[in-house]
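Dear Dr. H.,

I hope your travels went smoothly. While you were away I took the liberty of generating a structure for the chain from your last submission, since the lab meeting agenda had it listed for discussion. I wanted you to have the full record in hand beforehand rather than looking at slides cold. The sequence, exactly as received, is reproduced here:
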Amino acid sequence: MQFPLARACALLLSVLVLAAPALKAEEINVMNSGGFSAAYKALLPRYEQASGDTLHTAWGPSMGVAPEAIPVRLSRGEPADVVIMVGYALDKLIAQGVVDPASRTDLADSRIGMVVRKGASVPDISTVDALRKAIVQADSIAYSDSASGVYIEREMLSKLDIETLVKPRAHMVQKTPVAELVAAGRYTLGFQQVSEVLPIAGITFVGRLPEAVQSVTRFAAGIPYSAAHPAAARKLISFLASPKARDAVVASGLDPLPAN
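The corresponding predicted structure, in token form, is as follows:
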């Protein structure tokens, strides 16, 4: 007895489906530094819904010796399928043999901005001279212990020729977002990546540093050699660097790359 064609096709399809391996959602461990956090948080539910994967995220600076710092986390064996961090800090992990160089992918550029406490007088920082005046007149300034703060402490204050004058009132902050401490009244002026200060309540965003003394930090992603799910990690990184992520990158205060 011959089966009708439609029934035969249905039977064949059911056999193929049963024989095919089931698609498996992955549990992906991500380590993410502050500058890309706001964009990542906006994109996370979108990616999880589209991929079926679940992202578990550990937060910490790209450098430094704090227990939360990404290099420190990796050194003590915390699991990571993807690391998102300052590009030159990622390059250091690549040189150390921790991250696969073939996985390195640029994501976005980040510039430094300045904030004051909400309700406080907003200084002019539209020019280098205006920025210099604002810093000199401030009772205190604060910056992070990551890329932006390292640049301010080691280079920018010297470029402005105010390093000796300002140093007693300058503070490098660990762990806590600088804008939170400015909002609490701990410091007069706060400097950090624009994408890190914009989400903080209780502050007024004054603006970006003038380009002549600006420092542009490129954020990038990579896959550690120890990654348990490298294929899923590559899919996530590809999404974060794609045009689909561009709207969240721009909204967070980061500058998208032309290729993205």
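Two observations you may find useful: The longest strand covers residues 27-32. The chain has eleven helices and eleven strands.

With kind regards,
E. W.
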